[in-house]
Design goal:
The chain is mainly α. It contains 10 helices and no strands. It has one domain.
Amino acid sequence: MADFENTTYNSPLEGDIHQPTPEVDEDDDELSTLDEPVKDTVLRDLKAVGLKFVHILYPTKNTLLLRDWDLWGPLLLCVTMAFLMQGVHDDKTGSSGPQFAEVFVVVWVGAGIVTLNSQLLGGNISFFQSVCVLGYCMFPLVVAMVICWIIVHLTQQGIVSVIVRLIISAFAYGWAIFASVGFLGDSQPVGRKALAVFPICLFYFILAWMVATYS
């Protein structure tokens, strides 16, 4: 016991008891938007939305829509389509086109049902990611709606006008499906992709039919 009680240390203790200060990552500092002007924030968000529209026109395996999802783009497209598609009551025939709220509900409820179906099939994608992609992939249909609106209001109606609108709507319908399946196809389990793609086709078919039959 004496050896333990009289133990001495000839070497001085070395070390620093202070905890190291973590280095500030420059990238994290750049991502902070608390001190930047509102104009810069808005311009950056608009640039991000525009970039996603480009990815819809040229679908690739880019994961931007899934990684940095937002609902601003889908909301803009939905409002634009609902505004252009809003029908005026015809006193002669007693009929009228779809109203703003009807188009709005069809778009968002339809996207929600398609997303819920994907979730039930075991898709590895979040609810809002799926809604974001489905909303952005409406872009070709909204462009077709703008063209059909111009044709209806600025040209004489006839069989040629109807055929042109059908062709434009069919092309936009195919492009919307092609883009959405390209982004959402890999999120479904093997053997269940067809069950996930069918509601997507039905969702865009309803929108395409509303565009083609607009008058």
